[in-house]
Amino acid sequence: MHPIPATALACALLFAGHAFAAEPALPQLKAYTVDESWLRPVEPRQIADHTWRIGTEGILALLVKTDAGAILIDGGMPQAADTLLAQMRELGVEPGDLELITHSQAHGDHVGPLAAVRRATGATLVSNAESAVLLAAGGSDDIHFGDEIVYPPAHADRIVHDGEAIELGGQRLTVHFMPGHTPGSMAWTWTDMRDGRPLRIAYVDSLSTPGYRLIDHPRIPRLVDDFRRSFDVVRALPCDLLLTPHAGAGRHDGDGAPLTCRAYADKSERALDAELAKQRGDDN
Ligand SMILES: [Zn+2]
């Protein structure tokens, strides 16, 4: 160790104090905190012969079980990985049985644990090109949120295109691109059986604009056009049963009954129009 003369050290400290005295302290890191219902695990619930709801009360994760293994759609918050693995085990799906993982959007409250689940299971992570960029960045540099909602980055193993299907053990899930809430937002549709009859399930991404600048956004100037096209996509989905990543979004405010895909798109379009009017007013 080299001794530093006391006077030199004093000078250095004095100088350092001088140079930075006028600068404010750097901000503390803030955790991404959410409603507690987003963190409260559910008992696995059967939706149809092959389709189960797992995850938490507020945020859906879906498991499609087949004789050839299982498919996980969405995972929820980053801290949900162990819960998901336990819920899958409860349904008889060991980590090695999970073949495919996919998702709705690449925000941290829906894909947060996917890197950990992929690592624990060896499953193939399926995404689309827009979402894969955000997944690889761990949610950073988000168009609307910047670095506010980051999560462990995940590597997409397979990229699907609009209208493409993934298949496992007789279950065939088709993807429908619906950019808006995120540029890579996706709906997934498949036909399962319930009470001996076919049930067309539509798992449809968020259509909300939480705090988004809608007009003249420098990074996504055609955002509203994207939303309008996506409302039409959602209206046209095969949809006996609508499910949404946020449990309440696809349900009636009053009785909590599931909305039709058309009603969900209509409701979301009214909300977008109201927000647009507000932002136009604010600009005047
Ligand atoms: Zn989101």
Automatic annotation (TrEMBL):
UniProt-listed Pfam families: Lactamase_B (PF00753)
Keywords: Hydrolase, Signal
Top class in the EC scheme: hydrolase
Entry-linked SUPFAM superfamilies: Metallo-hydrolase/oxidoreductase
EC number: 3.5.2.6
Signal sequence residues: 1-21
PANTHER family per the UniProt record, alphabetical: METALLO-BETA-LACTAMASE DOMAIN-CONTAINING, METALLO-BETA-LACTAMASE DOMAIN-CONTAINING PROTEIN
The protein's name in its UniProt record: Subclass B3 metallo-beta-lactamase
Annotated source species: Luteimonas notoginsengisoli
